[in-house]
């Protein structure tokens, strides 16, 4: 399999796992079957023109977009089964880490992977427990006829999601402990970043929770192409939505597009919120006053309405 490390901003990096050549002899687990069945059902509901299925899909996609991209990244890493463990230890299954050397130093890659694998571990454990606690509380909803117990299914999905994120993180920790990763800088990825038009959104303060300390500095990227990005001590976007699509095309990974789109949107939104908080209510008030019509314009508008 291949692990991709793609910086979204100067402080945040997306992890994505591409699974290669899954052995045909490997039996499909019940978890894989349930996931496949749910994906097909969801795709069928998306094709509906209207009805409650379509509404569920719309609300569901809205909620999915807000699940942290870090969680989606860990979920893309397959759990460490016994057969996979043996294959990785004996060398029959190679694990390659693809990254842009223009932005990330090779000696930082293991630390970045370790942080991505462990920083949200306690959160996923807590949320997993709360999902199980909440499931029995949704039983009364199942009494309602003709409507599926959506809260129960949502909690089931979130429990599975947290479990898969934990399993993906454990797999990465295993690979790091056994030194089974092959680090491969990618000129293709570097070229996409080099073609990114500047300036992109930035903020004086990092939006990530790792704002200080060694972990925060681990994720700090190089200055791309010596462009002297604004707010070097804060956070600056490194990819736009347009270049995110170019990245998926350059790597020939169409399934990566939705992951990049989600991650870029989340980080862009965090930067905008950070700038809004830094500006304070005064600027918000002046902006509202600026957008409001002038008295003469308002009077003229009223005269036209009366005519």
From TrEMBL:
Query: What GO terms describe the biological role, i.e. biological process, of this protein?
Result: potassium ion transport; proton transmembrane transport
Instruction: Report the domain of life of the source organism.
Output: Eukaryota
Basic and acidic residues bias: start-end ranges: 291-307
Does the UniProt entry include the keyword Transmembrane helix? Answer: yes
Stretches the record annotates as Disordered = 195-234, 272-307
Q: Which keywords annotate this record?
A: Membrane, Transmembrane, Transmembrane helix
Q: Which InterPro entries match?
A: Mit_KHE1
**Membrane listed as a keyword:** yes
Q: What is this protein called?
A: Mitochondrial K+-H+ exchange-related-domain-containing protein
Species name for this entry?
Cercophora newfieldiana
